[in-house]
Automatic annotation (TrEMBL):
It comes from the Bacteria. InterPro entries: Split_barrel_FMN-bd, TR_PAI2-type. The lineage of its organism: Bacteria, Pseudomonadati, Pseudomonadota, Betaproteobacteria, Burkholderiales. This is Transcriptional regulator. Pfam families: FMN_bind_2. PANTHER family: PROTEASE SYNTHASE AND SPORULATION PROTEIN PAI 2. It comes from Polynucleobacter sphagniphilus.
């Protein structure tokens, strides 16, 4: 990832909170010399050293685990949005401005391990469900489904663990603009009803 120092985030706690807020990852690995790309939710361990998820047993990711160096990169996408140069006060002064795109992402690199343990899988999917159900004011639990059905579903998946060896964040949030232009972006974002832009604004408030 192209990572100018100005946009680099090294705070592990901040990145951990970011991953937990935006847990749906783009997972990239190399299989037989080709890129293997998948999309799945991952859960970060409390100590921030491991990512856990599950995949279908037929998913090619499972084959990566048998390679000599089973490495994966999980990319977590946060809020992003187009920034118009009309928000910059410097536009009136020089006209030397162009649009850009602000965004926040985190990349977790690590070693892949498969987990073929039915008890672990049941606990994992139950925890994942319990974590996200409240978002919809719902209280559905894995145990609400027939036990034989759940066992059938568990038999079709395998757990994955990514032992995180490197965690990198890039928050490109107008830090490279003069203070007055940065303030102009913030002022206009504050007026936006768009939820994603409001989330981006919350990260900007901690960057300047």
């Amino acid at each position: 990832m192209y990572l100018p120092k100005l946009f680099q985030i090294e705070d592990a706690a901040l990145l951990g909170a970011f991953i937990r807020k935006y847990p749906f990852a783009t997972v990239v690995g190399i299989l037989n010399g080709q890129s293997e790309i998948n999309h799945l939710p991952l859960m970060l361990s409390e100590d921030g050293t491991r990512l856990h998820g599950h995949i279908a047993k037929t998913n090619p990711i499972a084959q990566i685990a048998s390679q000599g160096q089973p490495e994966l990169t999980a990319i977590f996408h946060g809020p992003h949005g187009y920034i118009t140069p009309s928000w910059y006060p410097s536009k009136k002064e020089t006209g030397k401005v162009v649009p850009t795109w602000n965004y926040a992402v985190a990349h977790a690199h690590g070693q892949l391990k498969l987990i073929n343990d039915s008890a672990w899988l049941l606990d994992h999917v139950s925890t994942l469900t319990n974590l996200h159900e409240p978002t919809y004011q719902s209280s559905w639990k894995v145990s609400d489904a027939p036990e034989e059905y759940i066992q059938m579903m568990l038999n079709s998946i395998v757990g994955i663990e990514i032992n995180v060896t490197r965690l990198t964040g890039k928050f490109k949030l107008s830090q490279n603009r003069p203070a007055e232009d940065y303030a102009g972006v913030v002022a206009h974002l504050e007026q936006s009803p768009d939820q994603i832009l409001q989330e981006m604004l919350s990260y900007m408030s901690n960057q300047k």
